[in-house]
Amino acid sequence: MARKTANDDPLAPLTLAVGQEELLLDRAVQQVVAAARAADADTDVRDLSSDQLQPGTLAELTSPSLFAERKVVVVRNAQDLSADTIKDVKAYLGAPAEEITLVLLHAGGAKGKGLLDAARKAGAREVACPKMTKPADRLSFVRSEFRVTGRSATPEACQALVDAIGSDLRELASAVSQLVADVEGTIDEAVVGRYYTGRAEASSFTVADRAVEGRAAEALEALRWSLSTGVAPVMITSALAQGVRAIGKLSSARGGRPADLARELGMPPWKIDRVRQQMRGWTPDGVAVAIAAIAAADAGVKGGGDDPEYALEKAVVTIARAARSRRP
């Protein structure tokens, strides 16, 4: 879905990824890294935040190496670079080093526009990664995800998936991947409905909600009903992951109004309010424990264990305990 300029060589000296859609920005980086490692398996990748790129740092990273190694230097939130560092980057753009690909991730607004203009003037390969705020854009994204996998999904199935998942592109992409891995043939609305519905109060998302709220008994009850009504285990692990990830994202975000946080985190405002209520008992260590439990459950339901149901029950109990890790 990310739009590219005519110069679409991932190994161009400079790639400029512009926008605020995190999934697309990450994919732009991954494409460059994959191309570089295909050319040289020993490619050195340096992935830096704006505050890690200080004056002089770029010169050190791009200086000639005795081993003539290929290198990818990624700079995130380039619009936040200091004035002195921007001078360094602009100077580098005039004479880029061989065997080095610089990837600048820029939000695209007025802040740091001078760097954006300089990169474009230098002939950067540009990848547009705009925030997808319209339902029609997200629907197109889902269709594209199915198309890339070579699988067919009916228009009704794509719409049902958008309706069920919402606006988070990572969650939509994950749902498409799991449906493609789990279902043979054309994916239709009935398939999506079987994965995401059933008895409404016992959907995979209800399991996740009760677990992250620390309500183990209710979460286990919802889990057993979901499994008995045909909800796929992989969709339950996906819902658990989404619930814990939302808590982790919101707990590390700066304070602000729900609308501001919604834009920053890619969640609808109503979800911000709900996650705020759910995260009261959580600590960073609790989030880490829950993520590990979900990873183990995901492996268990995908053939890594003998009893997928037990793997899910164990994860739900661990998550519910982690939700109460902050002592009053």
Architecture overview:
The protein is of the alpha/beta class and 328 residues long. It folds into three domains: 3-129, P-loop containing nucleotide triphosphate hydrolases (Rossmann fold); 132-196, Helicase, Ruva Protein, domain 3 (Orthogonal Bundle), CATH 1.10.8; 201-328, Zinc Finger, Delta Prime, domain 3 (Up-down Bundle). The protein is 57% helix and 9% strand. It contains 15 helices and six strands. A six-stranded mixed sheet has the order 1-6-2-5-4-3, sandwiched between helices. Helix 3 links the parallel strand 4 and strand 5 (100-106). Helix 5 (135-149) packs across helix 6, helix 5 (135-149) packs parallel to helix 7 and helix 11 (233-251) crosses helix 13 (269-278). 40% of the residues are buried. The model is unreliable at 198-202 (pLDDT under 50).
What is the topological layout?
Elements lengths: L2 E2 L9 E6 L2 H18 L4 E5 L8 H5 L9 E5 L7 H12 L5 E7 L6 H9 L3 E5 L5 H15 L5 H11 L3 H14 L6 H8 L7 H9 L3 H13 L4 H19 L6 H8 L3 H10 L5 H21 L3 H15 L6
Helix pairs in contact: 5-6, 5-7, 6-8, 7-11, 9-10, 9-11, 9-15, 10-15, 11-13, 11-14, 11-15, 12-13, 14-15
Keywords:
6-stranded mixed beta sheet, Zinc Finger, Delta Prime, domain 3, alpha/beta, Rossmann fold, Helicase, Ruva Protein, domain 3, 3 domains, 328 residues, DNA_pol3_clamp-load_cplx_C, 15 helices
